[in-house]
Design goal:
By secondary structure, this protein is mostly helical. It has 11 helices and no strands. This is DUF4407 domain-containing protein.
């Protein structure tokens, strides 16, 4: 049963191969098994590749089955259409388009399986790229908000600096009138004289200005700080909103690009393996000598071709003979007086009807 199934996969004529020896049947069963398992690998590869795209098992399995069936049909067609002619160069020229097609199929099949085989290494490359993208995205968003944030912070710092400057001025005036009272500076006279009172008044006025400045600046600073928090929240939200896009950067194209960044040789040898598997049935048929099945198939083709040629010749001969016979018949009829009189009578009747019709129309006019 399994042998018959693999022979069916090889594209061989089941009735014709049944008349061949066991060795010939085993050869074609081996070719069919290669075709079948290549289709199975194509199904696995495409299902995994489509799963990375759709993230849905059922959809991936369905389209993977369709793709595997397509590859199976193509391989079966390629193998079954190669005919042994006894001349290697003629056979190679005949098979060269099929070999190119087999190479393309092998590359398409191998790439998703390479992605699965090197999944851990690819994930490492993708993680590195995601981190770089996250840093770049955060910097880009920060640069977008930078002008407003810096301007707002500069305004807050300016107000705070004004308060600090006023506090230093108040402290200096306080120190001035204290040292004046002590007699350690200023007029060097101890006591609360006119200079002391003058300096004390300047200090008290500065304190009032400081208090007024603090009151007026406090509200502005609070508003600026609230605005700064809103800008920072917008910045964080922008970064957070774009992070899922970066986290989802692991589709099929991203994985193929990540695979290309890995060492070339391991991936190349895997592709060569699939190339060898895919082209092996074709190469086997090219290298094999003309066998029992090929002779029987060629004999059947020649017999059928001969039958078609004979039928075509007989149809042409029948057509020619029939035409000659009808030529003779119509020549004889041409001399028949009775038939002549009948046709003359009918023609006369037609002419009379045409004349009456014309006369009727002319009267209406």
């Amino acid at each position: 049963m399994l042998k018959r199934f693999f022979i069916l996969c090889s594209g061989a004529d089941k009735d014709l191969i049944a008349t061949c020896s066991d060795g010939e049947q085993n050869k074609y069963a081996g070719i069919g098994a290669t075709v079948f398992f290549t289709a199975v690998m194509a199904f696995i590869a495409s299902a995994y590749a489509l799963y990375t795209v759709f993230d849905n098992v059922y959809m991936a399995v369905f389209f993977g089955f369709v793709w595997g069936s397509l590859i199976f049909n193509l391989d079966r067609f390629i193998v079954s259409t190669i005919r042994k002619k006894g001349n290697f160069m003629d056979e190679f020229i005949q098979a060269s388009p099929r070999i190119v097609l087999a190479m393309i199929i092998a590359i398409v099949i191998s790439k998703p399986l390479e992605i699965k085989i090197f999944e851990k290494e690819i994930n490492t490359v993708l993680l590195k790229e995601k981190n770089e993208m996250a840093i770049a995205n955060k910097k880009q968003v920060a640069d977008y908000f930078k002008t407003d944030v810096d301007k707002n912070q500069a305004s807050i710092d300016s107000l705070k600096n004004q308060i600090k400057a006023k506090e230093k001025e108040v402290a200096a005036l306080y120190q001035s009138y204290i040292t004046e009272a002590e007699g350690s500076a200023g007029t060097k006279k101890m006591g609360k004289g006119p200079i002391y009172k003058e300096k004390r008044a300047a200090h008290d006025a500065a304190i009032k200005q400081l208090d007024s400045l603090k009151v007026s600046s406090a509200k502005t600073i609070a508003e600026k700080e609230a605005k700064g928090k809103i800008l920072q929240a917008d910045l964080d939200k922008k970064v957070a909103d774009s992070q899922p896009i970066i986290d989802g950067f692991d589709g099929l194209m991203a994985r193929i690009n990540a695979l290309n960044k890995l060492p070339f040789l391991p991936s190349f040898f895997i592709m060569l393996l699939f190339l060898a598997i895919e082209t092996s049935p074709i190469i086997a048929k090219l290298l094999a000598s003309k066998s029992e099945y090929d002779f029987k198939y060629e004999d059947a083709e020649i017999s059928y071709k001969t039958l078609i040629e004979q039928n075509a010749y007989q149809r042409d001969l029948q057509k020619k003979t029939s035409a000659e016979m009808y030529d003779g018949v119509y020549n004889d009829l041409r001399e028949d007086q009775e038939l002549y009189e009948l046709k003359k009578k009918n023609a006369k009747a037609v002419l009379e009807m045409q004349s009456q019709e014309y006369l009727s129309k002319f009267k209406k006019v």
